[in-house]
Amino acid sequence: MRNILLLICISTFSCTNNNTSTATKLSQYDSILVAENFDTTITNADKSCLYYKGKPLLAFGQDIKLFDTTFSFRYDPNGAYQDFFNQDITDYLSLDDFYSTKLSTGTIDGALYFSADNKKRVFKLKATFGIEGDLLDTSGMEIMSYLHDKYFPCLPADFKGKKTFELTHKYFVEQFHLYPSPDSADVEHGFKPHWALDYTIRPTKKNGL
What we know:
By secondary structure, this protein is an alpha+beta fold. It has helices spanning 2-25, 28-35, 140-151, 159-162; strands at 51-52, 55-56, 74-75, 90-94, 100-103, 106-116, 122-132, 164-168, 172-180, 194-203. A hairpin with a 2-residue loop joins strand 5 (100-103) and strand 6 (106-116).
């Protein structure tokens, strides 16, 4: 009995050491991708619901070189991984004019933040759209229609009522959240209603580096 227990202890200790050894072999760069659940073996991933000039902006995990040549973006020194630029993780920011517009019932101002690995493949993206306008009355129909027709054709007709929406793909998930901005509470003092629409793309799972 003691021999059996000893063998179990030795086996457990050996496995623990092997796991620890494997974990310590991961570079900081690999650890980031593991934490983000990014599968670097992705091929033929679905395209995003986010559109740019009539076409999906990107397919998840694609090289940034495959963006539309007119899509403007730049390095973001204040991004999520600014402390890891030496690890080949790069943050980007886009304030492309396409994602901002002035309508008869309000305005929309969008900003995109995304991160890419050492092969310049996008593994994380967040877009925030600031909306100045009243979405609670009929005038909000123009703004919501514009968001659907120009930016997010996948949004359901009842999205404004739900205020949240999610699309799950094989390699990634797209999430939407529409909510009133804090300053929208000051309408009585002459401020126009403000809303915000957050959109994120994140990996769903990781199969290997």
